[in-house]
Amino acid sequence: xxxxxxxxxxxxxxxxxxxxxxxxxxxxxxxxxxxxxxxxxxxxxxxxxxxxxxxxxxxxxxxxxxxxxxxxxxxxxxxxxxxxxxxxxxxxxxxxxxxxxxxxxxxxxxxxxxxxxxxxxxxxxxxxxxx
Length: 131
Fold this sequence. Notes:
By secondary structure, the chain is α+β, with helices and mostly antiparallel strands.
């Protein structure tokens, strides 16, 4: 049996992302159902997930105990279930709400570098910091 319910791969250089991650860390507390992995950390190897740095930077990803990788809104659903917000997760799957969340996340993922001041005119995924 795995020692986590979900392993989230997050961009530790993203201020908005880190606000969410810090909240989840507090909520997870001693439960430790979530494994937090910062893809911006110098020692992180994207090959450990079987993905490229660019793929991981385009949207949020998570790994489940069986090794499968999920992305986007489903990651947040799993994270919120792990911290005890199951009823909200159930609501997030309702028709209309689910589509709105997917649409909102796609807009955020496409613009997060710009919205967090990490690019100017031409917004590209930043190069990886060396280990």
